[in-house]
């Protein structure tokens, strides 16, 4: 973990300790370190050890700060500045070898700017500069006094004349214009008195720039002071300022470095006649803010779709007419409940409080508290503490709508939401039914498209599954197998028939051959078959002798005969022999 991250965690722990007891901080320290992701053991030990060391030296550190801060005691410092200073002074006093002075001061200024107000960085820088160089001013004064004594006859311009006849000069210290302006600006910045000051005078040369800035001059019989109020600070101006106005302006004096001229940067401007009331306003605002009544965590969300809206305002003022016009235009179906209250003068604050509490008990969804524009005196009922407490304690969300956009009251800071005007409050409290219907129609169309798209996607998916199921279905496969078996059977039958046909053809050939070789056929052609009495076939004359019985087989029977004579003969030979 980098050193900058370690210091930031130590600063946060020190700041938390301002609001917890020592026993509570032991638990808070463990919980805080446990919440830091990927925290190594070495970093954990360093953070907890340094935090405990600073807490043990708190009294010494505060004593050091009180001695150097020129009366600006630690009890008057805000908590962020004090915490940053304690951390930095500890490093300057006890970690000189580990942390260079410049690094400690620069990192402290960055912490103050990050977690403090706009002036915190300059304030911390000024205090730490004095601590880091405690003898700088004393030494500078002594050196200056000694130099004046030695060069009393010299010109005050800073040039040393060696030889008047030659008029050769040597420049001791030469600075650029920018360096001088930066040095002077730093002097103004370190002067805490000039960082929060109120000036009264008459306005002249007042110009509203197109960027939103206001340039003007404050003057009195003693002189003039150039002033500027930037657009971001315009909320501190509750009226249209013009030449000749007697005003009290709060802000700071600083140097515009480019021109080398100082001017007043205003953050809030009030008419001089309203100064006492404004002081009361600021004091009560600070008190309630310190009590936490402006804290964001106490703000309740404004319901987006309210059914009953409570209104605390004058029944005859312009505010209620504006609210009625806006509510009728946006949503005439929402019930509006008006509590007719006094909004200025004696008894106005109590009347507003009664209205808030009554509507809170009535169970409305949101309450609008407000009135039209006016001076700070006319709006003062909304700056009373009892009104602020009634809004803070109200269980129903409260919209503050007091005056115009530039009017700010304490009720605006306590309320759950601040509207610049009563009309704007009605815009926030009454939802537009036409817009809602259009939105619902749009949602319906989007829902229908989404449903149909979903149906199409699922239908296509179902078709794919059907195709796959049809392909994998056993019945289909069985039909395919049956068809295959039928085809095989047909091929076998065809092959068998062809085989039988071939065999029959071969058989007919064999029959023809056998028929050609059949003895019966020979007999039919005039041939006969001769055997002896025992049926032995006679093929030679040598097998018989005279007087032997013979059986002669012919086509239609058997002839019994006897041998009368034999004659040997060789068919195809030239001679015969006779017995």
Main features:
17 strands; disordered C terminus; alpha/beta
What this model shows, in words?
This protein is an alpha/beta fold and about 575 residues long. It has helices at about 5-15, 20-35, 40-55, 60-70, 80-95, 100-115, 120-130, 135-150, 175-190, 275-290, 320-330, 350-360, 385-395, 410-415, 420-430, 435-470, 475-515, 520-525, and strands at about 160-165, 170, 195-210, 215-220, 225-230, 245-255, 260-270, 310-315, 335-340, 365-370, 400, 415-420, 530, 550-555, 555-560, 565-570, 575-579. A five-stranded mixed β-barrel has the order 3-4-5-7-6. It has a five-stranded parallel β-sheet with strand order 9-8-10-11-12, sandwiched between helices. A three-stranded antiparallel β-sheet has the order 13-14-15. Helix 12 (about 350-360) runs parallel beside helix 13 (about 385-395). Mean pLDDT is about 85; it is low at about 135-170 and about 575-579.
Give the gist of this structure:
The chain has helices at residues 3-17, 22-35, 41-56, 58-68, 79-94, 101-115, 120-132, 136-150, 177-190, 275-290, 318-330, 348-362, 385-393, 410-414, 422-429, 433-472, 474-517, 519-524; strands spanning 159-163, 168-171, 197-208, 214-220, 223-229, 246-256, 261-271, 308-313, 335-340, 366-371, 398-402, 417-418, 529-532, 549-554, 557-562, 567-569, 576-578.
